[in-house]
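Protocol step 4 of 6: structure prediction from sequence.
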Amino acid sequence: MKSLGFVETEGYVPAFAVADAMAKAANVEIVKKVWVGAAMVTVVVRGDVGAVTTAVDAGAAAANNMGALISCLAIAHPAEEFAAALGYEE
């Protein structure tokens, strides 16, 4: 299983900036964006551990520059059950 990365922002425009920064920073696949509600949007990526970590750091920096970073997380090799529960299995 590849690693998963999540960056949560306040608003759609920062989420687009995050997705762009993540894709440019490392070789990751943008899995989806999730509208959480109350203007919160999460961008989800997957890839190798190092690439996901680099992408999450870049995405978090982009969101932080816009004052829209809520949270970020990189999960190295998540358990198959966890990934399946989120719908991100390979």
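Step 5 (inspection) to follow. The chain has a mean pLDDT of 93.
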